[in-house]
Automatic annotation (TrEMBL):
Organism of provenance: Bauhinia variegata
The protein's name: Uncharacterized protein
Length: 459
């Protein structure tokens, strides 16, 4: 019997007469995961550890790594239904899995949260790219004029420039055609994480001491300290989960072996690698600067020299986020493409493709609806980023908003249904307790991050 496919706006373009050829393996999936995980979030981890202190900071990083691994493992088994290895029904997207296991009502909630999460990530990446671009200009300015020079640069122009690049990038058809983007982005991720880590270690050696304290950066009041701690939890939450893309990535894998086995291996490898970088970057950054730890390790100018290395690291960030923006935006593009195609099946504006051939380039298909929608999407993310260009606060709010519902609640609920775990049994209590604790973390992180955004906007 042929495999059935529950298809709800996956990254991969699927046609009934031309089924998708799945060729992915552990390493391609790992590259996609690393591209999704190592992004803007890693740059704020030193600041997060600084707010939490030497005991709570490293412990929270470890706990988030374990939580992400558990959540991803549960979600890997939801790709096929009813059996996680040999079930005849595939769920090629996160939203499709929620519909199959939990019903249409929760599917709608998951859909809103998923696309809100992807949209929020795109906004955060616009902000981060602008910050890194300014850092390159500042680094060169400081090298020429001295560390006390003003060297001020605005945000808007660089956000608009990044948006222009993304308008052109947004016409990559699907994730199969983005493997090269993910590979390049993963290489860039390793590069700037390694540079940040190396500079942190070098600074600690130069200082001859490990800075920081058990309680972290002091604040003027207990309330202010709590706001910063809550915001730090949001920043860490932003760095880790990739649940919204996991099943999309898993749908690229060839079988045999069963996709869930391959995906679990890829997930374990990717999370282990990224957790190591996260832990080292967070802890060595705090050890190097203590209470003066900047909000962004590579753009806050805790490091000034060597300026060319700072420039290179920020260039790697920019290149990485050019690709990562597309990885997180493609599901939104695909959803609206499919929805409008069904809704307006007779519309040439929505469904007609034109073949364009430019000199020295292969021909490509142009659709007027895609041109307009994707351009409007990029403009909207860029516009919101211009209104709220606050790196740590934006990352914290986005991370807190989606951490519990998407990374914890739905994977746990789907696992309970799939394994037919009865209420009030030992496993049921363990999973529900796990979910509730993560819910509390998400709530306090969201409150702290929103307070940070409001305070920054009013100051």
């Amino acid at each position: 019997m042929e495999n059935q496919v529950i298809d709800q706006s996956p990254l991969i373009e699927s046609h009934s007469s031309y089924p998708v050829k799945r060729t992915g393996n552990v390493w391609s999936a790992g590259a996609h995961i690393i591209t999704s995980l190592i992004g803007a979030g890693v740059l704020s981890l030193s600041w997060s550890v600084a707010q939490l202190g030497w005991i709570a900071g490293p412990l929270v990083l470890i706990l988030f790594s374990i939580t992400t691994l558990v959540s991803a493992s549960l979600l890997c088994d939801c790709y096929r239904f009813p059996d996680p290895e040999y079930g005849p029904i595939r769920t090629s997207s996160y939203i499709a899995a929620v519909k199959l296991y939990l019903g249409e009502t929760k599917q709608k909630v998951a859909g809103v949260m998923t696309y809100l999460s992807l949209f929020g990530t795109a906004i955060a990446y616009v902000v981060t790219t602008s910050v890194s671009t300014k850092a390159i200009l500042k680094s060169n300015c400081y090298d020429k004029e001295g560390h006390q020079a003003p060297c001020n640069h605005g945000d808007t122009f660089y956000m608009l420039l990044f948006g222009l690049v993304q308008i052109f990038m947004s016409f990559i058809p699907d994730l199969h055609n983005m493997t090269w983007v993910s590979v390049v982005a993963a290489i860039m991720s390793f590069a700037y994480c390694s540079i940040g880590l190396g500079l942190g270690i070098a600074q600690v050696i130069e200082n001859g001491t490990i800075k920081g304290s058990v309680v972290g950066v002091p604040a003027s009041s207990i309330a202010d300290k709590l706001w910063l701690v809550f915001q730090a939890l949001g920043d860490i939450a932003f760095a880790y989960p990739f649940s919204t893309l996991l099943l999309e990535i898993q749908d690229t894998l060839k079988s045999p072996p069963p996709e869930n086995q391959t995906m679990k291996k890829a997930t374990m490898i990717a999370i282990f690698i990224t957790a190591f970088f996260f832990f080292c970057c967070g802890c060595f950054g705090y050890a190097a600067f203590g209470d003066a730890t900047p909000g962004n390790l590579l753009t806050g100018f805790g490091f000034y020299e060597p300026y060319w290395l700072i420039d290179f690291a920020n260039a790697c960030i920019i290149l990485h986020l050019v690709g990562a923006y597309q990885v997180f935006s493609q599901p939104i593009y695909r959803f609206f493409d499919r929805w409008c195609s069904r809704k307006f099946s007779n519309s040439e504006f929505v469904n007609k493709f034109y073949t364009l051939k430019l000199p020295l380039l292969p021909g490509f298909q142009l659709n007027l609806f895609r041109l307009c929608f994707r351009t409007a999407y990029v403009i909207s993310t860029t516009g919101i980023a211009i209104l709220f260009p606050y790196f740590n606060q934006v990352l914290g709010a986005k991370g807190a908003l989606i951490f519990w519902p998407l990374a914890i609640y739905f994977p746990v609920e789907m696992h309970l249904v799939q394994k037919k775990i009865q209420p009030w049994t030992r496993k049921w209590i363990v999973f529900r307790t796990f979910s509730f604790v993560c819910f509390l973390v998400s709530v306090v992180a969201l409150v702290g991050s929103i307070e940070g955004i409001v305070s920054a906007k009013l100051s």
